[in-house]
């Protein structure tokens, strides 16, 4: 059984993630952490969640804190803390402001919970994963981000709708940045086990429009309802369940790579990785030429933003 801590639990994503993660059978204890001054809100969250546990028949020990060191002995620590994105705001606009929050948080987590797996959700998630890795001092296999997992699920849903098949029949991936330079892997996309290029109707697939829809999904949801909650919340729970269940599933998350993808690396970015109790392990893959080009450009973009953010962060610390 496991202890899961959610940092930033008073935010929309953190609150819903608490609900989805509490359904995982391997979770026996959950700690919600918020900012000092938010104690009343945290009390209310715990009360509300406890009521839902009673209705559902879930038994999870639930507590709250405003002190990061209480995350000690956690198996998984989910970080959703930071400034939320506003309508028409690029994820990277948040980079330096959120990096300050993440760096301080990661330093404390590295000291008090060196055996935990640190799961970054804060945007821009690829950059924040790199910041968390640097300042926590944890091994690369113990730090990862939500990355393009949700983007891949969004594309999966669009493809299933187009071909009028159940979503479970579609397997696809988006790699690279969780943002503008994301790269769809059409070469790795199958429907019912059949490579998508071998389906005659693929020629009519509005591939570019689908990727544009995926790329702007978060922005559209924020514009229409204020924030993305349910998609990220369920995606977070899927990844936590995969880790705690020691499932060894290959999912597309932001992790540190060295040379796994065509000798491209030294960056935290979305790639297929094997997830289990020991951590996150990027899977070596080969891509088509156009996919390599797109991925290389995405890596260069994220590497440059990461370097700039860390340089400016160091200047202000």
Could you explain the architecture of this structure?
With 317 residues, the chain is an alpha/beta fold. It has two domains: 2-145, NAD(P)-binding Rossmann-like Domain (Rossmann fold, 3-Layer(aba) Sandwich); 149-307, Alpha-Beta Complex (L-2-Hydroxyisocaproate Dehydrogenase, Chain A, domain 2), CATH 3.90.110. Helices cover 43% and strands 20% of the residues. The protein contains eight helices and 14 strands. It has helices at residues 12-21, 39-56, 95-112, 125-136, 149-163, 207-225, 230-244, 289-316; strands at residues 2-7, 27-33, 61-65, 76-79, 117-120, 143-145, 170-171, 174-175, 183-184, 190-191, 194-195, 249-257, 267-276, 279-282. The strands form four sheets. Strands 3-2-1-4-5-6 form a six-stranded parallel sheet. Strands 7-10-11 form a three-stranded antiparallel sheet, covered by helices on one side. The chain has a three-stranded antiparallel sheet with strand order 12-13-14. Helix 3 packs across helix 8. The longest helix is centred in the last third of the chain and has 28 residues, at 289-316. The chain is globular. The two termini are 38 Å apart.
Weakly predicted, low-confidence segments: none
Strand order of the largest sheet: 3-2-1-4-5-6
In this structure, how is the largest beta sheet organized?
6 strands, parallel
Rounded to an integer in angstroms, the radius of gyration calculated over CA atoms is 19 Å
Bin the strand percentage: 15-25%
Average of pLDDT = 95
Distance between the termini: 38 Å
Into how many domains do the coordinates divide? 2
- Principal-axis shape: globular
H and E order: EHEHEEHEHEHEEEEEHHEEEH
Summing up helix and strand content along with how strands pair, one would put the structural category as: alpha/beta
Number of helices: 8
CATH homologous superfamily assignment of the largest domain: Lactate dehydrogenase/glycoside hydrolase, family 4, C-terminal
CATH architecture of the largest domain: Alpha-Beta Complex
Instruction: Fill in the CATH topology of the largest domain.
Output: L-2-Hydroxyisocaproate Dehydrogenase, Chain A, domain 2
CATH class category of the largest domain: Alpha Beta
Helix content: 40-55%
Number of strands: 14
């Amino acid at each position: 059984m496991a202890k899961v801590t959610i940092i930033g639990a008073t935010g929309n994503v953190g609150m819903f993630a608490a609900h989805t993660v509490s359904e995982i059978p391997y979770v026996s204890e959950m700690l919600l952490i918020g900012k000092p001054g938010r104690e009343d809100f945290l009390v209310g969250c715990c009360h509300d969640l406890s009521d839902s546990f009673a209705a559902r028949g879930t038994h999870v020990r639930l507590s709250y804190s405003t002190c990061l060191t209480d995350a000690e002995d956690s198996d998984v620590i989910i970080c959703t803390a930071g400034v939320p994105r506003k309508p028409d705001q690029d994820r990277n606009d948040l980079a330096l402001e959120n990096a300050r929050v993440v760096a301080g948080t990661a330093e404390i987590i590295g000291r008090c919970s060196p055996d935990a797996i640190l799961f970054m959700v804060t945007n821009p998630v690829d950059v924040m994963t790199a910041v968390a890795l640097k300042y926590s001092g944890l091994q690369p296999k113990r730090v990862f981000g939500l990355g393009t997992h949700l983007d891949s699920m969004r594309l999966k849903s669009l493809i299933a709708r187009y071909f009028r098949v159940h979503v479970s029949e579609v397997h696809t991936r988006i790699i690279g940045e969780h943002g503008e330079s994301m790269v769809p892997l059409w070469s790795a996309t199958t429907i019912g086990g059949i490579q998508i290029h071998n389906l005659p109707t693929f020629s009519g697939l509005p591939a570019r429009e689908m990727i544009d829809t995926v790329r702007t999904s978060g922005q559209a949801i924020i514009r229409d309802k204020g924030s993305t909650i349910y998609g990220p919340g369920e995606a977070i729970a899927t990844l936590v369940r995969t880790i705690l269940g020691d499932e060894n599933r290959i999912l597309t998350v932001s992790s540190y790579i060295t040379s796994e993808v065509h000798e491209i690396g030294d960056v935290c970015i979305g790639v297929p990785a094997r997830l289990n109790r020991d951590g996150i392990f990027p899977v070596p893959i080969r891509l088509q030429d156009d996919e390599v080009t797109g991925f290389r450009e995405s890596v260069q973009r994220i590497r440059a933003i990461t370097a700039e953010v860390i340089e400016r962060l160091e200047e202000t610390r």
